[in-house]
């Protein structure tokens, strides 16, 4: 008597849904208050003036205005440098 399992069972085929992360509004584009600028995990992009950080690290506009991206150099507590981008909203 054969001891092979009958077909229909597999451990493959699972895939998680994408989270749709990334930039939603680019440099010099207009945004309204509360509009999401960027979805991220962690703090690769930093909130600047008139930008708030949500609980899932997404950045959104605090006021209506124009989005401005600016590269910044941060110094960590151990003296190492980290390059990041600060996102601000300039009100109209």
Describe this entry's structure for a reader.
The protein has 92 residues and is an all-beta fold. The chain has a single domain (22-91), classed as RNA polymerase II/Efflux pump adaptor protein, barrel-sandwich hybrid domain (OB fold (Dihydrolipoamide Acetyltransferase, E2P), Beta Barrel). It is 0% helix and 42% strand. The protein has strands at residues 22-23, 30-31, 36-39, 45-47, 51-53, 59-61, 65-75, 81-91. The protein is elongated and about 80 Å long. The relative contact order is 0.23. The mean pLDDT is 92.
Query: Could you name the CATH topology?
Result: OB fold (Dihydrolipoamide Acetyltransferase, E2P)
Q: What's the CATH class label?
A: Mainly Beta
Unreliable stretches, pLDDT < 50, 5 or more residues?
none
**Would you list the SSEs in sequence order as H and E?**
EEEEEEEE
Q: Whole-Å distance between the termini? A: 80 Å
